[in-house]
Each structure stands twice: as structure tokens, then as C-alpha cells.
Give the backbone structure.
Amino acid sequence: MTPRAKHLSLFGMMALLLIMVGTLQSWNVALTILNLCLISAIMTLGVNIQWGYAGLFNAGVMGFTALGGLAAIVISVPPVPEAWQAGGSRTMLGLCFGGISIGIAVVTWLKTANWGKKRYWLTGAVVIAGYAVMRVTVDPGIAAIEAVEPAKTGFLGGFGLPILFSWLVGGAFAAGAAWVVGKIALGLRSDYLAIATLGISEIIIYFLKNEDWLTRGVKNVNGLPRPVPYEIDLQGAVWVQTWAERLGIPVIEASSIIVKLSYAALFLSVLLVVFWLSETALKSPWGRMMRAIRDNEIAASAMGKDITWRHLQVFVLGSAVVGIAGAMLTTLDGQFTPASYQPLRFTFLIWVMVIVGGSGNNLGSVIGGFVIWFFWIEAEPIGLALMDLITAGMDPDSALRHHLMENAAHMRLMTMGLVLLLALRFAPQGLIPEGKR
Amino acid sequence: MSNFAIVPGLAYGSQLALGALGVTLVYGVLRFSNFAHGEIMSFGAMATILVTWALQARGINLGPLPTALLALPVGIAITIGLCLVTDRLVYRYYRQAKTQPVTYLIVSVGLMFLLGGLIRFIIGPNDQVFNDGTRFILKAGAFKAMTGLDQGLAIKTSQSITVVTAVIIVCVLFWFLNKTRAGKSMRAYSDNEDLALLSGINPERVVMVTWIITGALACIAGTLYGLDKSYKPFTFLQLLLPIFASAIVGGIGNPFGAIAGGFVIAFSELFVTFAYKKVLAYLLPSGFAPDGLVQLLSTDYKFSVSFMILVIVLLIKPTGLFSGRTL
């Protein structure tokens, strides 16, 4: 089978699976899965840029996703003028102080290179003093903001711009964070990068959970504006009603299908753009250089390539793509819930997608995102059905049967682990291997 | 002060140190960062809990001490079994193929998923309390009566058990590494693989011994953590970060460093998030006592402290505080 035929058959099978869900369960479910498949595929592309092109293990995908989500609320939510009045200027001033003190600390650090031990103490003192000044300024401001109708707002709100704009900003947020992380951890060994990124992603989540003035924390931000029409408006439209009647489905279902289809169209266009850009980059001299660095760092640096800088570059690029996907995810959900970010779901699942799909191959990443997401969702009904089958002979009231049925949902974690281990062992190249160029 | 910082700090530090020792041993001998370590700890704790329940159901207990201590040896045996089975089925293939460390790392992520799912499948995702026996070894009121001080000091049984067990385990471990033949061959293997092979050390045996120790340490650490706080499957993924931080801060691959790192991380977490209000109220003249809690960082950021220390150490001394000598 030629590679092209194989790719076509893989994507064909994927489409078939989705159509099966559409006919067997419902088209609504199928489209929900499709939308998340598309987003997962974009995230996978981002991770593939880091891992497949450059061999960087980023265990902080969750953090960059969440930063994308933060962008969605900062951009789209209308501002809360009362909160701005109550403590906005004070908080901003404090944050400026914080920024300035970081700047002073960096300058101190750079200017005192030959001071010996004193260098550490001086920089430390600057950091502590700056932190104290920031806290003294910021704390009352934050308290004032959070006191403004805590049940409804209690945060600064955003800029009230169209939410589509936030996809780019999400990418920028993630890129900024990636730059800082990369600066710290990329010069070190690969394990350290993994642990450092794991850490930064946890911190980002803690930050989003606790800084209520910015994100409302665990109180969540609901009802984000949408880039697509609302179901309720569609149900009133005449063309929707006639269309639904012609297809013989209820108007309510038709409207939600239209909404999901328009999301799918938006996501698909982003996916195509990102995919096209990644492919072009991979085939360009830059892509060849990245692969050369990945395969033999020493030889590449002997050829005059700046390894650390190139790693930083590719790390920032990949994280930006993940950030875009994160903003899209929050847009789709219509709400921002910091507590929902779990490393298993947002970091390690994406890794399963990359590895199973085929690291280093963009098409592989896309199919990996689709297949793994599909089975992540469908593992639950399949697992339940399986458990039902296994326990069919048992007494319906038996404790064991009850326990098995109750915990069948956790089968999917196990399945994913097994899939990853089997893929690594027997098909380390993935579904669509990178291939020779 | 000692009530809310020093005593819990000692207990938490011991738990982290035991966890970090496992990570460090695996790193020293097998040369990869084991992301599944948190889940191994969780698995060990789960095994101990199940045995504890079985014992409790038969009415066996240790009086004032938690029954879990009686169940611990069985739990350790089960965890060691798990480690050996995973090594045989999963890691051995990659060891023989001499794969890169980062592949090992991804493999351990896969194992993390698998174990996480297995644990949730067996015991469910909810909180399990399995601590019985006396809760406090020293009650706050009793301490006040004993010393005549006006601030109470309470020591939980689980805390003192943690510290005592950790001290015993660490002593045994160092005796093993420095005095026995197997321990010496482990150190030699970790120091220089080729040289160790030349002197006739069987690598498979070294790896097996490493997994046995790691399994035992992980099970003890997990059980102690579960006794002290409570057992919840997902907390162990969060514990992974402080554990890694402890191992790296101390110098990864160095057992002494792992212990020191554990206490550094535990105490800095507590001191940074400690509410200094009362302390300041004592130190400052009356009337100057601050209104707020005077925390350096709010308690929610506890886990981020370990990360910050990690970053500082990575920036200033990437090899860790006690580098130079591995194992």
C-alpha cells in the first residue's frame, strides 16, 4: 500500500467511526466529538513541533492550554467598571512595580557577574524588596476588586472584544510563558525540562484558581460570548425551520447541529492553517536544520547552529500553537473553569496522541489527535458495555458486579496507558511514521 | 509555631525524602526520571489499605498504633512484586535495546496512566481514611499542663510514626548501600556501568535490587502520607512535583541529597506559606500587631514553592546541592 492510500484509509476509517457514532448514538454526540478531535489535533500539532521536530519533552501542555483559556476571558468578557474603579488602578500600579522590580533584579544579576557570593545576596534582596512593595500595593486593590458583587463579578473583566481575537492572544500568552520557561530550563538536560514544564503548568493552574481578581478563580467565568449564533436565535429563523422540516428532525436538534457545524468549520480552518504552516516549516531549510539538531546536537553545533536558541525558538512556537488550541477550547465550552485542568487529560493524553499518531509527522499528529480523542470519549460506553457483558452471568445485586460497573469509567485511563505502552513497544514510529526525506 | 510548622514539616519532609530516595535510586541505576513513581506510591498505599481493611474486618489491631503498620509488610511485598513485574514486562525491553532516557520517560508516563487507571478501578477515586488507633500522641491541652506554657503543642501519632519509620528506613538503606555486597555493586554500577560489568557485576541483578528497594520505599512513603493526610488517588500525581524537586535540589542520583532535599522543600513550603501574624504579635510591641495573616504567599501556592526552589537551584547550581558523588 502506498503511503497516500494508507493515509486516506486511516482518515476514511476515522470518518466512518464518527458516522457510526452519528447514526448509532446521535449526530450531536458525533459533532461534539469531532469538534474536540479538531482541537486535540491542533494541540497535538503544537506538541509535535516541539517533540517531533526538535526532540523536546514538554510536560506542561496543560499550562499553555489554560493560558489560552485565560486569553479567551481577558479578551471577550465585558469590563466591570465598578471593579476597575474600586481597585483597578491600584492593582495595575502594583503589577507595574512587580514588573519593574523583576527588571531591576535581572539588571542587578547581569551587572554583578564578577561579584562572587555577594551577587546572590544582592539579587535576592532586590527580589524580596520588590515583592514586598508589590504585595503592599496590590493586596488592598485585589481585596477591593474581589469585594465588588462577588457572587456575580468580583473580577476586573476583560476588554469586551470579539472572542475570535483571543485565539491569537492565547497563542501570544502561551508563547510568552514558554519563553520564560525555555530560558530557564532549555540549557539543561532533557529530564529537567520535563520536570520544569510539569511544575510551571501546575503553577499556572494554581494561579488561575486563586487570582480571583483576574479569573474569578474556582467561581468560574460562564457565558463567554460566542463566535457563532445561539441556538435560540436559530430556532426562530425561518430557514432553519424549513431545513429541519425537510430533513425530518426536531428544530431544537437542528439548531444545535448547525451551531456545532459552524464551530467545526472554524476549527477546521484553523487546523488547516496550522497544518499548512507546520508542513511548510518542516520542509523548509529551517525544518531540515531542526531535524539535524534533533538527530545529532553535537554535529549540528559543530556546523555553527546555536542549539539553545533554536530549541527556545521551537519551544515557543509549539507552545503558541497549544495556546491557540486552549483558547479555542474555552471558546467552545463557553466557560472558563480552572478546576477542570487536569494533567492527565491535558498533558499526558496529548502525549499519547503524538506518540500513537507518529512523532515527527504532522499528518500523523492529526490522525493521532482524532483517534485517541475518539477512543478517550467512547472508551466509557465501550467499557461499560464490556463490563456488562463480563458480569452478565453474575448476580445483579452482587457487590463485585456493582463495584465493577461503578468503576468501569476508569477503564479509559488504563486503556490509554496500555495503548501508549503497546505503541511504544511495537510501533514506536506511530500510525503514520515520519519516513525518510 | 512549632505546632504548625516544625512538627508537620518534619513529617512531610520525611515523606518527601522517602519518595525522593526512590526517584533518585531509579535515576542513579536506570538513568531516567520515573514519572510513574507517584502512582507506585499510590499503589503501595492502596495495597496496604486493602490489607488493613482485611485485618480490621478480622478484629486485629495494634492498640494505640494504626493497624496499617501491621499491614505494611504485605503492602511492601505487593508493591515490590508490581515493580518487578513492570520491569520484566516493560522496562527490560528498552534496557536491552539501549534506548534513550527520554523514551524511558515516555514509557513511565504510559505506566503512570496504566497504574492510575488500575488504582481507580480497584479502590475508586474517593477519599479513604484508614488511620485508626490513637490520633494524638501529645494533646495540646496535656502539653500546656505539662510545661506551663500558654501555647499548646500537639503531635499526631501518624506524624511521629512517620518520622521514626523514616529514620529507621534511611539508616537501613545507608547500611545496605555502604556495607553489603549487593549495595556496593549497585553503587559501582551507578558510578560506571562499563567498569562494573568488567568486574563481573550482573546488571540484571543490580536492576532487580534497585526495583525491590524502590518498591519498598515507595510503598512506605505512600502509606505514611496516606496515614498522615488521607488517601486519595489523585494527590499522588501532585506529589510528584515536590518529590522530583527534592531529588533535584539535593542532586539527583544522590541519596543523601534526596533526604536533604525533602526537608528543604517541606520546610520552605511551610515557612513561606506560614501565617506570621502571631509571631509578629509576639516580637513587635503591643498595638503594632498586623491585621492580616502576614503570609509570604497564600496557602494555595504551597506546591509552587517547591517549583520555585527547583528553579532557583537549577539556575544557580544545576547539579544540586550535594553533587559530585552519586549513590
